[in-house]
Amino acid sequence: MHDFQFHRPENVAAAVKALKSRPDGKALAGGQSLIPVMKLGLAEPSDLVSLSGLKELLGIRREGKELVVGAGETHASVAGSADVKSAIPVLATLAAHIGDAQVRNRGTLGGSLAHNDPSADYPAAVLALGATIQTDRRKIPADDFLKGLFATALERDEIVVSVRFPVPEKASYEKFPHPASRFALVGVFVAKGPAGIRVAVTGTGGGAFRSKELEAALGKRFAAEAVASVAIPSAGFSSDTYGSAEYRAHLVGVLARRAVEACG
């Protein structure tokens, strides 16, 4: 790992200022994604700007028909939040099954979204729930925020502050986890809420995306049987030692049916 300068700003404005003045600097939240990448030599930031403990990034609260979660909240805090369990129970369950205990107690919602790993769980959640990502300067709908493999709409010096999740009528997430990392080999999040019926898929290789085929089928009839005959194209899906592209496409259909059944 290369040498770097470490900064601990007092607030979000100071963090943004530090990033603006250091073109090769990176924001550091929980560090569960960035530090391993640095250890492998795949990233060599000149500066690390810590976001840990910034009060503006903390807090979980219900605001009318929305659940607002601070970007600095850890997976463990989301999993254990009474407000999350009451408003969107599936979000608490999703967070409780991310990685291992160390990852859940250090990794953050904002860090996961900013990194946008193609097998991460939160990207599927924000897409399916029609969430809005609030940064230090603007609001970005989830559909516009995620740009594909490890890519987002964030500017280099832009920081995620919170995420607003519309409370759905019903929602469920089913994941086939990698045996070691617990990342999703395939994950399917189904939600029926203010934005209609939305189905998001993660783990297939190119980043989380919405399945138009599954959404169309469920729009006609919200039942597991409605998606049983939907053909999921495998084009663009990854193949590795854990599963071929065709196998992943098959899993999407299986997990979609389970998710709809779990919705009740």
Describe what is shown at a glance.
The chain is of the alpha+beta class and 264 residues long.
List the helices and strands and how they pair.
Layout: E1 5-7, H1 12-20, E2 25-28, H2 34-39, E3 47-50, E4 60-63, E5 66-70, H3 75-80, H4 82-87, H5 89-96, H6 101-106, H7 109-115, H8 122-129, E6 132-135, E7 139-141, H9 142-145, E8 160-166, E9 170-177, E10 184-193, E11 196-202, E12 209-210, H10 212-220, H11 224-227, H12 245-263
Parallel strand pairs: 1-3, 2-3
Antiparallel strand pairs: 4-5, 5-8, 6-7, 6-8, 9-10, 10-11, 11-12
Strand order of the biggest β-sheet: 4-5-8-6-7
Mean pLDDT score, rounded? 96
Helix content: 25-40%
What is the subunit arrangement here?
single chain
Helix/strand/pairing class, anyone? alpha+beta
Tally of strands? 12
What is the C-level CATH assignment of the domain at 170-263?
Alpha Beta
Shape: globular
What is the N-to-C succession of helices and strands?
Answer: EHEHEEEHHHHHHEEHEEEEEHHH
Percent strand: 15-25%
Q: What is the straight-line distance between the termini? A: 49 Å
Cα Rg:
18 Å
The CATH architecture classification of the domain at 170-263 is: 2-Layer Sandwich
Task: Sketch the major β-sheet.
Answer: 5 strands, antiparallel
List the total number of helices.
12
Q: What name does CATH use for the topology of the domain at 170-263? A: Enolase-like, domain 1
